Structure formats: structure tokens, C-alpha cells
Amino acid sequence: MSQIQDQLRRRVAELLDAKTLDLFLGYERSDLPLKTAARFVRTAEEAERLVWDRTCTSNLAALLPAVFKKPEGIRGEWTPPRVGILVKGCVSRSIVGLIKAHQVPRDGLHLVGVGCEGMIDRHRASQLVGSAEIAEAMFEGDSVRLRATDGTEKTVAANELLAASCAVCRFRDAVLADETIGDPAATVEGADRYTPVAAFEAQSAQERWDAFVAEVSRCVRCYACREACPNCYCTECFAEETEPKWIGVTTELSDLMLFHLGRAYHQAGRCVDCGACVAACPQGIDLRLLNQKINQDVEALFGGDVSLSLEELDPLCRFTMDDDQGFMTEP
Amino acid sequence: MLVLTLAKTDLATFLSAVAEDRRLVGPVSDRAGTTFDEIADPTTICLDYRNSGLSPKGVVFPQRETLLVFDAEGGTEHRPEAPETVLFGVRPCDARAVSLLDKVFTWEGTEDPYYLDRRRRTTIVALACNEPGAACFCTSVGGDPADETGADVLAVDLGDKMLLRAITERGEELLKTAGVGSDASEADIQAAVKAADAARERLPKTPIPTDLDGLRAIFEDELWAQEAMTCLGCGACTYACPTCHCFDITDEAKHGAGERVRSWDTCAFPLFTLHGSGHNPRPAKDARVRQRVLHKFLYCPENFDDIFCVGCGRCVTHCPTGIDIRRILARVKQRVSTA
Amino acid sequence: MSAMSNPYVPYPVRIDQITIENDERDLKTFKLVFVDPEHERAFAHVPGQFAELSILGKGECPIGIASSPTERGYLLFTVKKTGVVTADLHNSREGRVIGVRGPLGKAFPIDRLKGKNVVIVGGGFAFTTLRALTQYILDDANRAGFGEVTVIYGARNPGELLYKDELAAWQANAELETHITVDKGDDAWSGHEGFVPTILGEVAPSADNALMVVCGPPAMVKFTLPVTAKLGFAPADTILSLEMRMKCGIGKCGRCNIGGRYVCKDGPVFTLEELSALPEEY
Predict the structure, then answer these.
(1) Do residues C125 and C184 share a domain?
(2) In a domain, A79, yes or no
(3) Average per-residue pLDDT in chain A?
(4) Rounded to a whole number, what is the distance in Å from the CA of B216 to chain C's nearest CA?
(5) Could you tell me the pTM of the whole model?
(6) How far apart are the two ends of chain B, measured CA to CA in Å?
(7) Which of B70, B113, B294 sits opposite C56 (nearest CB)?
(8) Do the Cβ atoms of C83 and A245 come within 8 Å?
(9) Cα–Cα distance for residue pair C270/C108, rounded to 1 Å
(10) Which of A258, B4, C153, C251 could form a disulfide with C262 if both were Cys (CB 3.0 to 4.6 A apart)?
(11) What does the pLDDT average to over B75-84?
(12) Are A140 and A221 in a shared domain?
């Protein structure tokens, strides 16, 4: 990892020094253990701050559309900056989606691909140290050693702390890149990503309803999930529309349900299961359950995975005569 | 004022006594860490925590609160009797934050009756910190791991027992009604002092800009746009924050009957300042990030003589893209001094 | 319902009359009468203040009070149809009961205006609170307390002028000097034709012992201020009214916060001097 990190820093410094790029978006160390921050760097010197490890959780693609928007108060022509970005698999898929949706331009973006082994879920790590807090986390090969504030230490295989979406990820390398750093990531076979969906569906209707209520009741409408998601780029979200008013803005249970159901449906055919929503939620809501169900349906109805290529139209953007039309005859 | 010690084994008894004719709200273990919730069974209280995920401000300033109830005939204010509540085991930073919210909701004589209904019936037992959290910086903004501001009782964890110091009359009343515990010894009191000293020692001092003129002068600085580039524009920081108090008022109705409610809102959302005409005084993220920082460190000090940040660190913990207000403040302070 | 002790509770008012102000029919003046006369006594507003018009089920909107407190028995609000609440209000019939919450905000500084010449400059449908101020000054009980009064008011075209009957009455009234202008006249128009700042420059009221009150759309205000400065009106003597997105109206919810000020509570009336001390975000 640290080799890749060094390579990354050198390469970005090169690109910035040569003025091939104006900005590079990557990750930098945060002051908190097991957390990194998104970071735009502009100079070779700043490039030294970039890191690449198993805490690079957030989906950087969510920050891109704003970079290409003409700032207020600027008159006449405006050229957007040339932006480079470090892309693990899910981030590259999100960018494929954004390019096809005309939210970011292809030219003007320089994607530096990197193979990803999967990111640590901070909350899972926290649970290992009980009521103490993690003071420091040291990666040693495939393990991570957690030192808690009460002095205790615990070493565990990094793969045991993987974020749920990372544990079943099948696209660990960039699907779109202008160049790559490091070797391709090891593939993951056999992980059935829809097991939690099946487990949920095996429950009775009442159990499922109760679980759904318990889950969404935790929501405080902070919209961290929405803003962290690269696919949520709408300038006015349906949840905040007043004419017509689809749902209320409060934590009334029906509003919470409709917000999450609505957002999940709006992701249909676009969600790449990057897990950014879950990682962003301050209340630890399992948002992926809804998205995974819809992903499963999309896959079953239309086949294939989404956002893999710029040339192909994604399922809900295309129509073919052999599309499943059972919903009309067998709703 | 009363200073008691209570064996940890007697804590449940104490809490049961307290909860007999009051609503007990305290920290409990939750999948996202620790959260504040109504406690039916006092043995489920979890006092061995750094700080909760979201702040406990919801006890006095709920996420959703009904102001009026109406139907086709008209409307009436909705002010059910607030339950007598004991907010037990909040950190001193959060208790301090409540005292700051008090200022807003009684500002210049305009009293917010909904807030005050709840506030006046809430007794706060703060739990001093023996160990700061990774993102804590209370001492840099005028707080302290054993701060008494806003608390009716200050509790200190001494291992096998707790020290309970009454700060206000209300707090003393609470300790008396519980009828458990014994007078604290001098040794206990000293142990509590030592614990606070140790915690204070471990708290890093982070640079905080306090030069108000200087802060005004950097309003147009490019640093805001730079910091805002990694801001997602969500409300995680403000909703977790114990002093943030912006709210929206909306009518939720069906067939002419319903409620006028207030709910948490945030200056981080672009829609917050959007005019009906389409004009937005804060059209881009840089203005909104600036607003968040300046409101806490300039405008509130101007209006209330208080920084509206208690250094709890929740915004640092929760920001999905890792924005760290301590870093922004250090940068701001540096710009102020070189401006 | 204790409307007076709870600042979030509106007073019930009946829509007594609706006047369509413009050809496009998206500007209407509502004459509201308090259902409970006790509420009118408590309301007691001063020109420059606003109120939140409340429609239960839809929401509230902050509207400047267009009537003077000297006009007993009713309140006037001129409302443009913009969003959910104003659209519903515009669909109302006379007799409907809605709510009014207020009075809110800082009024025009009447005490400072007393004994002085007052120049009132307004544009478009921002003229509403200026009507309140003018009517207040013109009231028999008050007139003698003020010096010369000059009103300059303009709109895009004759159809867009508010309060046409009152304007005619003012023009016939020797107690004040009235200049009405339109950006573009029509065949029937015989008054001034020109932008408000231009007409102000031509009328050129003296700044001697005078105060200037300006209300208008941002574009108009932007071009008017250099003229007022040129005429010699100091920033402390130039009074403006700001518009801002509001919700609670009582300085709690944070929406109208600019710098250390809340437009609902510290405004909407500000002097130019006060505004200059605020960060530029309005």
C-alpha cells in the first residue's frame, strides 16, 4: 500500500508540476484513527499529503459535479479546471454514471485508477474495543492492530472489518481510467451479495414491516446519505419539492419511509453499491438493504451490472423489445 | 451544596428513585455507538462512553415539534404538559451547549414557549470526562472536562463509586429526593479533582480565532472556497452539533387538518436562504461553510458573548468527507493574523 | 389560544376586501379585519413593520404591512403570487378567515423623521410599507410633526402601479409633493417617464434637515443609492428596507441571519450605514 501511496504522490506531483492538471482529488490523513478526508491538491508540495490505504472510504465522485459548475458572479466565458481524481472501482463506476448523465465532462477529467482491497468500516472496528475509543490503528500487512484509549490492544485481520459493500464487491479495479497505479486487486469470488436481501425476505410481512420502521425511525433527515451519493446530483430533490409537495420535511414516520423508499427507487439502474450512503449516515442506518433489493430486481429484469462502460446505456435509460413486460400482465 | 458519593452498585437504585415520577433520559448503547434515549430499565444505562453520536439537544429542542394543531375551523397552539425530565449522564460540553441554547430561545425578551416548556422541566446531571475523545477540544473553546455550566448536578466517575455534586437548587432537590448515597469525603472530592486534572492535561489545545475584527476582515478570503470544495452540503455536522439550532416551520396537512411543525434545518443546505424570487444570498458552498464557521465564532460572540461551539468534536467524527473544523479554525486564525 | 403570549400563534383575521392591483392580476391587496377587536389593540404596529400571513395547512409568508396604524379597523397587505402560500391566498374569497402573526421587525424610525423633511422613494411592489409611512405622516394628527414630504414612486408601466386611487389623491394633496413615474408609459399616461433614480435626480430634493427612505427591487436600489449620496444624504440618514427569506420572524430559526443581525428582528429597516457594516450576502 505504501508503495502505491508513494507512486501516487510522485505521479500527482508530476501532473501538477507539468500543469497537465489544475487539481487532483484524492484522500489525505485525518486526525481521527481509521478515517481519511477528501482532499483537493494543487501543487506538488500538497501532493505529499495524499494517502492511499484501507480507510479511503468516501466516494470522491460526489464532489466532482460542483467543480464543473460556473461560480456565481463570473461573467462571460469560464473554463473549468482540469481535474485529476484517484479512482477505486466503485468511484470509477460512479464517474461513468456521471459522465453519461452529463454531470461531469469526460475531457477535463483525468482518472488515475488503483486496485482496491476494500475499506474498513470504522463502526465495526469500534465495536471491537467496546466502550473505549480507538486511539490508534496500525496496518500491518493484512492485519490491523487497534489500540484503544484504555490501553488495550486488539489485532484482527483487516478483511474481518470490511464495510459490507466492500465485502461483496466485484469491481475492485477502475472500470474507466486514463492511467493506473499499482497492480490489479485480487478478485473476490463467491460472495453472494444478495444474501441479506434473501434473509430479509424470508421474514414474515410483520417482521419486515417492524424492521423497516425501526430502521427508518433512526433517520434525522440530515441528508448525509443523499449528498454522499454521487448519483444524487439533482439541484432540487423530490424530498424538498413544495409544488407539488410529495413528502413532508420532518421525521414523521411516513415522511421517513417515503424519503428512503423514494431515494432508493431513484437509484434504480444507477446504484453501484459503493456504500458511501451507509458510511455517511451518522445513525448507522442500513440503507443498503433497500438499494440491494432494487439492484437485485434490476439485474433480474434487465441483466448485467450498471455503470461499467461509457458506450452502453444503463437499464433504465434504454428500451429493447425483449425487456420483461411481466409487470403489465402479472403485476 | 450537597456533595454525595454513591457506590456504583447503588446506581440503579438511585436512577429508579429518580425515575419514579420523572422521565429518565440517558446514554444507552446503540449500533452507532451511544445514543440518548428514554430509559425504562436503569440497568441499561451506559455511562462508560466518550460521547454520543448525535447530541442530546433533542431533549429540549426535538427534531420535530408540533407548534399548532388545526382543522377547517381554525388552529390552536399545541403545548402539552412537558414531562418532568432528568437528563442523566451528558458530558459537560453538552450541558454547556444547553445553556447556550437557553440564550437563543430567550433572546432579547422574546421567549420561545415550546423550548422553555421543556427546558424548565429538565434537570441536567452532567458526567465529567475522565478521558477525552479523539476529536474533543472543549478546553480550547472555554469548556472543561469538569465544567459545571448548564448542569444542575455534576457527576464524576471514581471507579467503584460516583461523586455527585449539586450545582443548583434544582440539582440539590434531585439528590435529596433520591435518598441514596452518603456525604462525599475529602478524599473523594480530591480524587474527582485529580480525575479532571488528568483529563484536562490530555486535551489538545487547538488554535481558535477570537479576534472578532479579524474575523470580519477575512469574509472575502479565498480560504472559504478552498475549504468548501470537500463539503458535501449535507447536514450531518449541524444535526449532530449540540449548539446548532436553526429550524424550519412547515404545515403538514391533509384535507385541511393537520399540524404546523418545526423541524431541524441547517444553513448548510442551499435551500435554506433561497428566496421566492429565485435569488439566493448564499448560492455556493463557500458562503455556506463560511456561514457555519462565522456564525459560531463571530456572530454569536457578537450577540451572546459566547462562542457557539463547545468542542465536542461530533462534526469532525461525522463528516463523511473528513472536514475537520479544528483545521479550518487553525487556518482561519492564521489568515486573521496575517491579514 | 393565547396569541399574545406565544409568538408562534397567529391572530385570526377575516379577508374583508381583495383588490387586484395590476393587469397581470398577480398583485393583490388584502384588507384584513381582526376577528377579535382585542387583537387589533394588541397588534398596534408602526410603519415599516411586517407580519407573517398564515394559512393553516399551507404555511406562512412575511409581508410588509401596507396600512398605517392610523387606518383603524383593518390591515392592508399587498401580496405578489409567488409560491404555495401566496397562491393559496390569491385563491381566497372575501370572508375567508386566515391568520396574521405580528407585528414583527423594526419599523421606520418615526422619531428620527419627526421635525425633518422626508423623502420617500419607492419602486415596484416594494412600495407597500412606504404607503404605510406616507399615510401615517399625512394623518391629521401627525402631519404637523413632519417637514416637507416628497414621494417618488415608479413602476415598470402604468398597470403595475399600486394604490392608484391613493396616488391620485396624493397628487391632489398639497401636503406633499408626489412624483409618479413609469419606465414605459402608454397612450393614456401623461406623467413622468423614466427610471426612479433618474426622476430622483431631476427632482433633486435637498438633503438639508432631511432623511431619505428607499424601498425597491435590488436593481432599483442599486442605482438609487449613488443618487442619494450625490444629493448629500449621509448613509446614516438613508433608510432602507431589506427582504430576506424568513420563517419564525422572531430571531430564532436562523434563516434570515446576515452577519450578527437577523433581518426579521434587527430589520427589515436598516440605515445604509448599518447595512454597510454587514457582510455582503443579501
Answers:
(1) yes
(2) no
(3) 93
(4) 8
(5) 0.94
(6) 49
(7) B70
(8) no
(9) 8
(10) C251
(11) 94
(12) no
pLDDT at C48 over 70: yes
Average of per-residue pLDDT across B221-231: 95
Check whether residue C32 and residue C47 sit in a common domain. Answer: yes
| Claim to verify: residue A204 and residue A261 sit in the same structural domain | yes
In this structure, is residue C252 part of a structural domain? Answer: no
Task: Tell if the CB–CB gap between B230 and A240 is shorter than 8 Å.
Answer: no
Q: How far apart, in Å, are the Cα atoms of C157 and each of A301, A306, B258, C164, C186?
A: 59, 56, 42, 12, 8
Q: What's the rounded mean pLDDT across residues B2-9? A: 95
Same domain, A131 and A223: no
Is the pLDDT score of C2 beyond 60? no
Residues C140, C234, single domain; the answer is: yes
Confidence of residue A74 (pLDDT cuts 50, 70, 90): confident
Chain B hits for A149, Cβ within 8 Å: 50, 131, 134
Shared domain check, C116 and C87: no
Show which of A135, A161, A187 is a domain's final residue.
A161
- Residue A108 forms part of a structural domain: no
Report the sign of the C-alpha dihedral through residues A313, A317, A318, A323, in that order: positive
Residue A217 lies in a domain: yes
Instruction: Answer yes or no: is A142 within a domain.
Output: yes
Residue B112 has pLDDT above 70, yes or no: yes
What mean pLDDT comes out for the span B14-41?
93
8 A C-beta contact, residue B61 and residue B94:
no
pLDDT score at A294: 95
Task: Kindly state whether residues A145 and A239 are assigned to the same domain.
Answer: no
Q: Between C247, C251, C257, which is nearest B249 by CB?
A: C247
> Is C1 within 8 Å of B76 when comparing Cβ atoms?
yes
Give the mean model confidence (pLDDT) for residues B178-189.
92
- A150 contacts in B (CB within 8 Å)? 131
Residue in chain B nearest C13 by alpha carbon: B74
Residue A78 predicted with pLDDT over 70: yes
User: Would C281 be classed as within a structural domain?
Assistant: no
One domain for residues C218 and C157: yes
Grade residue A304 by pLDDT with cuts at 50, 70 and 90.
confident
All cell numbers assigned to B258: 393537520
- The count of structural domains within chain C is 2
Chain A CB within 8 Å of residue C277 CB: no
Integer Cα distance of B64 and C279 in angstroms: 32
Q: Are residues A154 and A215 in the same domain?
A: no
Burial string for A157-176 (b: 16+ CB within 10 Å, else e) reads: ebbebbbbbbbbbebbbbbb
Tens digits of residue pLDDT in C55-107: 999 999 999 999 999 999 999 999 999 999 999 999 999 999 999 999 999 99
The complex's ipTM? 0.94
Please indicate whether, in this complex, the C-beta atoms of C59 and B277 are within 8 angstroms of each other. no
Mark yes or no for CB contact B247/C259 under 8 Å.
no
Q: How far apart are CA B46 and CA B50, in angstroms?
A: 11
From the CA of C246, how many Å to the nearest CA of chain B? 8
Annotate B68-80 with b (16+ C-beta within 10 A) or e (fewer).
Answer: bebeeeebebbee
Whether residue A252 sits in one domain with residue A146: no
Q: How many domains does chain A have?
A: 2
Angle, helices A253-266 vs A288-302, to 10°: value is 40
Which of C103, C118, C143 terminates a domain? The answer is C103
- Measured from the Cβ of residue C95, the count of other Cβ atoms closer than 10 Å reads 8
Q: Are C32 and C82 contained in the same domain?
A: yes
Tell me the shortest Cα–Cα distance from A237 to chain C, in angstroms.
17
d(CA B324, CA C262): 28
Query: Domain containing A207: what range?
Result: 195-316
- Same-domain pairing of C169 and C55: no
Q: Average pLDDT for residues C101-119, to the nearest whole number?
A: 96
Segment A307-323 shows an average pLDDT of 89
Residues spanned by the domain of C213:
110-241
Chain C closest CA to B150's CA: distance in Å? 20
pLDDT in tens, C149-199: 999 999 999 999 999 999 999 999 999 999 999 999 988 998 899 999 999
Q: Are residues A146 and A240 in the same domain?
A: no
